[in-house]
Structures are given as C-alpha cells and as structure tokens.
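pasting for the record
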Amino acid sequence: MANSASLPVVSVPSRAAPPGAVDCHHHVYDSRFATIPGAAYRPPDATAQDYRAFRETLGLARSVVVQPSVYGVDNRCTFDAVAQLGDAARAIVLIAGDETRDELEAMARAGAVGVRLQAVGQSRGAFDRLEWLATRVVEMDWHLQLHLDADLIVAAAPRLRALKSRLVFDHFGRIPLAEGVKHPAFQVLADLVADGNTWVKLSAGYHFSKLGPPRYADVGVLTQAFLRLGPERMLWGTDWPHPTEASKPDSAVLLDRFSEWAGDEATRTRVLVRNPESVYRFPSLIPQP
C-alpha cells in the first residue's frame, strides 16, 4: 500500500451514495510497472488496494479504471488493478494499433470496455487516429473515450458527428468554466448527446474551478446545464488520485456537491448507477421500470 501521506485525504460523504453507485473515472499507479520514457509525470503509488479503501470510505460499489498516459499502451497496471478489484471494476485502455483481434478479445475478457484517446496539450497529435480508433471500438462493441480540449471539440465537430461509435467525453469536455454554456463546445456536445450515442463525464471539474472548494459553484452551474440536456447521458467520476493537482480535492465533498446539483434522487441514481451499468456493462442492481 502506498504511503498514506501521498494519497488524497477523503472524508465520509454527508449523503450516502445510492446502492451500486459507480466511480466512472479513476486511475491506479503502481511502481511494479514501469512508466514510459519521457512520461509527463510520475505520481506516487496509488494502488488497487489503496483505491478499494478509498471507494469503501466514499460508499461507492463499483468503478472504472482508466489507463493513465504515463504507462502508454502497456495496460498491465490497469488490468492488474481490475483483477484485484474483481467484477466490481472495468477497464478503459490505450491501444497501439497493431493489436490482433485475439489480443483485443483477451483485453475484453480482462475487463476492457473502451479505448481512450487523449489529445490535450502536447498530445494533440494523437487526434489524427480518431476515425481509425472509432472503427476498432465498433468492431469490439466497445466505446471511444475522448479526452479533448474544448476548442478541439469545436474544430472537429463534423468529424465527431460522423463517427458510428459510442462516445464518452471526459471532464465536461474541458469547457472553460468562465464561459460555460456560452462556449461553442457546449453546443457541439449538446448536439451529440441529442443524437443518442454520446455520454459526458461530470468529472474533475475541480481542475478548472476558479471559485474552488467547498462549494465549487462554477462547476455546479455547468453540471446543472449538462443535466438539463438529459441525465440519461451523464456519468460521474472522482478522477482519483488527482495526480497532477498540488492541492488534492476531498472526493466526499465532490460527491456531496454532485448530489446537491442533481437535485432529486431519481437523477442521482440515473447518473451514479443506471447509466454506468449500461455504458460499462455492469450487472443491473436496480429493476428497470
């Protein structure tokens, strides 16, 4: 287990999560696995067992382990974490492009349900692979998880609308909170959501908040705007262990704020339980109406 001093402090949420709640976005770091040469950062260990303890404190039942960029396309750390967490976890992987169908099917058996394309900052060149990756995920009946800057979402709107794959956008589409719904990326995402094949993760708003804890009021405004588009197309995640943040957020506060912004129990359950069950293929714990 990692040195507890290196891990984010988490309290107990004031409002319990609904049974079966899913953390749709977190990472695992384990020094047993080497990072790629020139990795942008090397965070301290935040292992699967550390995460299990965190998840129990937060009162969540299931989670999605997202492959961190520092491991490149070597997904061993992520799959090791999923194996430790068992059927309560799924994986989002990075792929190189030369994997055989048998190799991809082995990933699926190990818990993979999607592929991440990260094209932010210096990694924006990776966006050239958009259509190719979308084709591969359709072949596997997975989804494509997109971590893109908001201006890239706007510039690539026609390409995104032409894709046949299911799409999940990370972190509010990285829309600047000062602009919020006025940023043209919001309308692009609204159109994609309306088409019925796209979900948005209401996660990591603390990265962009100018107002900060404990209220994160600017995050709340954008969260509620996305929920008005359709709660059935929204997901939520902690982004634990917040590796690039000098001041780590308390995820219990983030969960409490989301519960307030969601407003009613039906919306909260839709986002925290029902939607992830569908997107990440978890067994349904709530009878469908």
